[in-house]
Amino acid sequence: MPAPFGGTPSGSETAKNGSDSSNGPDRSKDHNTNNTTNNNDNNNIGPRDFRGLPSLMSFCSPLTLKFIDVTYRLKSENKNRPDGCCGNISRRMLGSNSSVASPRPSDQPTERTILHGITGMAFPGEILAVLGPSGSGKSTLLNALAGRLQGQGGSTGTVLANGKRLTKSVLRKTGFVTQDDVLCPHLTVREILVFCSLLRLPTVLSRKEKVSVAESVMSELGLDKCQNTIIGNSFIRGVSGGERKRVSIAHELLLNPSLLILDEPTSGLDSTAAHRLLLTLGSLAQKGKTVVTSIHQPSSRVYQMFDSVLVLSEGKCLYYGKGSDAMSYFAAIGYSPSFPMNPADFLLDLANGM
Ligand SMILES: Nc1ncnc2c1ncn2[C@@H]1O[C@H](COP(=O)(O)OP(=O)(O)OP(=O)(O)O)[C@@H](O)[C@H]1O
After folding, report:
1. Whose CA is nearest to atom 2 of ligand 1?
2. CA–CA distance, 287 with 278 (Å, rounded to integer)
3. Global pTM exceeds 0.80
4. What is the predicted pLDDT for the residue at 338?
């Protein structure tokens, strides 16, 4: 097999792609993620991180993310139980006089597996893209990687940052940009970032320093031109969709995270705006951040910016490996497009079983 951590194209079996024992140690050797970085793991983001404000965005402690056999099972209760309100209503509508109804087998809680043993790694300085059709489990995986499913029943597997389990200190170094923006529509870009900077940065920093952090993040994300424009929403005209995504990212960058996780940051953007956004993510990765992003349908020029790709199909890993190796891997096992096409489109076709 040319791709040591490629998966099965059928999606019927979850390949332990990039599993701990296969690609993990080998790939780790290529990266400067050794014990030296592990030693920093327990250090909180302390005041000193913010002292060198000019170099604020140029340094963060490297963080290698490793996830092993991440599984998420969801128990859903049937809402039509006879003792539930829907059950009562439907009984009344059907004219049933029976006050006690015995539960039917179909009324028992059902369990559904959303993620089936997903394994992989994300390295500092790189972008790991999670691809897959709608409903394949991308957001759920990102939530698991960000420690947002911790303590929830149904979530199993291991997520390690620099070889250690996710601690509060690691979670503080993690920025999570959600699929839906949660920005106040009436504030300007500058107001939002300065306000959040004043609230979120350590109290040892002066007000002037905090404002300076907000300004440096704004300029890092190319938001200078629209800094006095309100965010807006569907009723009030504000910044563009791409700028709004950048503000969401900027909001997370205020704390200079080592790990940046983004859930579909390019949704709703045209291909040029999506490409520009990925260029920004690439430049953040180059500064040592570990970037993990889900993406629905990247163009070919966006696809070639991904260092690693993880393709999900119905919660199973179809492929995990270098983005540039995906086509040759699938060709080697008998799956090739009949004409030259965007690798991302081809992978999505496979994930959709086409
Ligand atoms: N808390 C939940 N309750 C019910 N269903 C859930 C829950 N979380 C996830 N799911 C289901 O799990 C599946 C995967 O959802 P998820 O949001 O991870 O997919 P996705 O690949 O991110 O989709 P999209 O690209 O449309 O955002 C979906 O079918 C979703 O309905």
Report:
1. 74
2. 14
3. no
4. 85
